[in-house]
Amino acid sequence: MQDPALWVPDQAYLERPSAARIYDYLLGGAHNFACDRAVAEQALAVKPDLRTQAVANRDFLGRAVEYLTGVGIRQFLDIGSGIPAVGSVHEVARRADPDVRVVYVDQDAVAVAHAQAIVGDDPRVAVVREDLRHPDRILGDPRARAVLDLDQPVAVLLVAILHVIPDSDDPHGIIALLHGAVAPGSYLVIAHGTADGAPDEARQLETVSRNTDTPMTMRSRPDVARFFGGWDLVEPGVVWAPQWHPRPDTVVPDDPARSGNLVAVGRR
Length: 268
Ligand SMILES: C[S@@+](CC[C@H](N)C(=O)[O-])C[C@H]1O[C@@H](n2cnc3c(N)ncnc32)[C@H](O)[C@@H]1O
Prior knowledge:
By secondary structure, the chain is an alpha/beta fold. The chain contains 11 helices and 8 strands. The radius of gyration is 17 Å and the shape is globular.
């Protein structure tokens, strides 16, 4: 494994903003470059709530993982995992069971380098650089297969990633392939950016995102619900992120649309 402290990004990485690093900047992390901060600041100018949204999203991810360990899930396939900061999936899940197995997948080399450094040589965690648009390659990856037993239930996490998969890349086909590959009793978790709450800001954000590798496609509540065809939605269904199994410390509970993210969990 390459030590990310020694990893030197090539010029393209320094100049081309990346969603993983922009998100890291919004969460207050340190794994970002000037080009990422510039796009993040542009985005914050049109949508000042973006930081709140990033925190609300990360919060939801933690609550979903806790819920899933509570119903017996011991394997996680986290696609679009980003740069694992405090509250990463294996950290949260292992509070319930230290034997939980996790595969992190991201297409961003920086996110993957940092994830590898964080998980080290743990045989129950794998980090794979791959693209959600090739779910067959993810499922066939030898590192993923060494960690996950697809004959047993697995939670597939698509948290804050599907809104960078345009309809032309067939997100429904991607989810159908994942559905067909996982065992009964598996779960699908989605958090998705939407224009439902603040349409003008969200559309401007889509425009800003055209300057990144991952332009955004906001989707509506019915659009998000359609991703769960073939899965039984867990209560309370498709809701704003802060409304899904909230806790006393959940952010923006009184104005949940400020989270900008619709979320849901479904069971196969
Ligand atoms: C906003 S971050 C979300 C991180 C984490 N899932 C969370 O919610 O805290 C989105 C991540 O998806 C990754 N990503 C974007 N498009 C992807 C694709 N087609 N395949 C795999 N990863 C992708 C980005 O590199 C980024 O790290």
